[in-house]
Amino acid sequence: MNAPTTSPDRPDTPSKPHSAHWGVFSAAWKDGVLNVQPHPRDPDPNPLIQNFTNALDHPVRVTAPMVRRGWLERGPGPDASRGRDGYVQVGWDEALDLLAAELQRVKNAHGAQAVFGGSYGWSSAGRFHHAQSQVHRFLNTALGGYVRSVNSYSAGASAVILPHVLGSMDDVARRNVTWEQIVAHTDVVLAFGGMALKNSRVASGGISRHIERESMRQAAARGCRFINISPLASDFPLDAHAEWVQAVPGTDVALMLALVHELVINDWHDKAFLAEFCEGWDEFEAYLLGRVDGHAKNAGWASALCGLPASKIVEMARRLPGKRVLVTVAHSLQRAEHGEQPVWMAAVLAAALGQLGLPGGGYAYALGTLAHYGKRSNAVPVASLPQGVNGVKDFIPVARIADMLLHPGQPFDYNGKRMRYPHIRLAYWAGGNPFHHHQDLKRLTQAFATLDTFVVHEIGWTATARHADIVLPCTMTLEREDIGGAPTDPLLVAMHRIAAPNGQARDDYDIFADLSERLGARAAFTEGRNSGEWLRHLYEKTRAALQEKGLDAPSFDAFWERGELVLPQQDDDGGILRAFRNDPAGKPLPTPSGKVQISSETIAGFGYADCPGHPAWLPPRYAPTARHPLYLVANQPATRLHSQFDFGAHSVSQKRQGREVCTLHPQDAAARGIAEGDIVRLFNERGACLASAALSTGIMQGVAQLPTGAWYDPVHDADGNVTLCGHGNPNILTRDVGTSSLAQGCSGQLTTIQIERHDGVLPAIRTFEAPQPLRIST
Ligand SMILES: Nc1nc2c(c(=O)[nH]1)N[C@H]1C(S)=C(S)[C@@H](COP(=O)(O)OP(=O)(O)OC[C@H]3O[C@@H](n4cnc5c(=O)[nH]c(N)nc54)[C@H](O)[C@@H]3O)O[C@H]1N2
Ligand SMILES: Nc1nc2c(c(=O)[nH]1)N[C@H]1C(S)=C(S)[C@@H](COP(=O)(O)OP(=O)(O)OC[C@H]3O[C@@H](n4cnc5c(=O)[nH]c(N)nc54)[C@H](O)[C@@H]3O)O[C@H]1N2
Ligand SMILES: [Mo]
């Protein structure tokens, strides 16, 4: 269905600044059309900003509070009809009265530990209206707390393994090697998972200048070689002149082991560095050389696993010694079974080359996967909403949501601890889309069916909203004033209001303020401020820090008038790895030994078979089979951020027959009688979805790629069972298992499938149509 591209009722407006996770821009209404222009100093603007042009008045916006019929008629309680039920439109007062009473009931009957408020998701870029901060602050101040989630879908495995072996995620990913250093110093960038520009064009909180493309171009022009180890050629832009190395997905650790093996048998490894800066090399080397299991992890051994000729692996290793080598690992590699291993093993490879801590060398985990990385840090803080104190201690690793809801009270392992899943009665989501981010969506539906009550604030009728009991319409970013800023971007943006709210939508903040009132906690939640007063209050921290440094420190009004403020940044000092290299005794790493942990007694002590005491090749439990012979790469979409504005003009323009595009190799297509543009059915033991086939030699044979983010559009059979997603959401296919007992991270990047041409009836796409209320309660 086509969305309107004009809004005749919108008056003309002057151009005003605003910001999104994907770029800084200005927007103006002219003749009912919203014109969106990138920031004039952005060298490589992100086309995602065009998703805003038709978003404000799109028919899929939630325009009034809605309550699910079954919940309204039967009251709170487990209900398998979530996702298929109709909605009753209610007034704001009725909605908030019902919700406040239900929050009070759950708290009185079961305590705040029966409320799940993790509310994972990216929401919008403004720092005050950041929905997670809002919902967390509300639950803390008005309810006494909530069960939270830890870590992210981005970096679930690396956030847990890195502190054991090197340092915190922020230190290893954010404050480390910069693009400036690569341009000036690096000879070889060995990029596992590539450095796709689509990804590095995004940063939480906003990004004003997209410099990655030009940095790659300049580095390549100086002679730096980028090596793209990935199933997709497009994981580097042409500007980088990258060499494409096609290794079987999920086998990067085998390749890294073989590279280190080649270094060791030729005596090319940096023994002095390993002795002085690292702990546990000997134990690892015994494994590497096969003294433990009788298998040397050499090029021949790895060749059989990763599908590269042994000679190619040897040649790759030969090109490394004596060069300034930077190893990078995309987040994608660790969003997979045993995802901890490539993150750890890459650090060992960089250590064996003796490169950790050198300018432009060593290991920069996740560089190239987000615009946060490879940048200088700001020297002053930017606004953030204080979240208050959470009185509940229970938490889950974020991707264990369905396990928690389906198995209350059951034990699970996490980072050396044996924990139990809490029993959740009410889940509250604002600013995230679990039917985008989670795996095995049919299982997720069963999990949400166990709740007494599911509350969602949304701007649009996502599948998450369609599974909720109470759906509250919230404003989208263009309808609010906010401050945009990120710790690694020098531009603080005065995000002006571009449009009046659609329908009855209200700010998350105002919704929570009125709910707090009903729960007797308004003053605690608002501290007596309205949102305009909060912006001034939060800006003051930045202003005071600027003033303290003797820098230009404009008043809030002056900042608002200017529309932006350039913040000072710190020196490009290489972070903790450089400091450690320069002064190992004085600046030890924050690990048990103070050194790089090539092996870890701590991790070994946990006794996990799926995460041993040094990085190792662990054979996949879920490799391709005769029935499901293809790997599916379910990666980040190029046309939107996750599921946000999938109904937006740019995202929709890239779909075919309204469906998401699945890329596969011409030979894999030919073997299945599939031609360019055919609608195909992707399926496995968990589910199926439709997509439009695109044939390309830029994808490895044996691999298909379907990005995430198409809104889940389930088709039901007569018994109410989901037969497939007609739109192309890959998470109906992915497996809902943790990366390992250590981190329990999301493993959604890779799964195994079969593909066939779909000659049957094409279901209509209904996901961009709002459900019509069954009735309007007055
Ligand atoms: N198979 C597979 N699955 C994946 C991934 C993968 O690679 N493969 N990637 C994973 C990763 S890394 C991530 S980070 C997650 C992303 O998962 P999410 O962050 O949950 O995805 P988004 O689509 O960004 O969800 C944000 C939601 O917030 C809503 N929203 C926007 N602004 C506001 C607001 O002001 N208020 C409120 N209340 N709501 C608002 C949007 O409409 C949208 O529905 O997905 C993960 N899932
Ligand atoms: N346009 C856009 N940009 C985004 C996002 C978005 O949704 N849209 N999301 C943002 C977020 S929240 C995050 S966390 C980052 C995520 O960053 P990533 O998780 O790194 O991004 P992906 O695109 O999922 O994966 C990068 C590439 O890794 C390759 N790959 C997959 N499996 C393997 C493997 O086993 N081995 C190797 N060597 N390569 C493999 C795939 O070809 C894939 O294109 O992206 C951010 N940037
Ligand atoms: Mo992410």
TrEMBL record:
Residues 18-54 form the Molybdopterin oxidoreductase N-terminal domain. Its EC number is 1.7.2.3. The keyword Oxidoreductase applies. Residues 61-518 form the Molybdopterin oxidoreductase domain. One of its GO terms (biological process) is anaerobic respiration. The keyword Nucleus does not apply. Keywords: Metal-binding, Molybdenum, Oxidoreductase, Periplasm. Gene3D superfamilies: 2.40.40.20, 3.40.50.740, Dimethylsulfoxide Reductase, domain 2 (3.40.228.10), Dimethylsulfoxide Reductase, domain 3 (3.90.55.10). Residues 630-747 form the Molybdopterin dinucleotide-binding domain. Belongs to the prokaryotic molybdopterin-containing oxidoreductase family. This is Dimethyl sulfoxide/trimethylamine N-oxide reductase. It comes from Achromobacter anxifer. The gene is dorA_1.
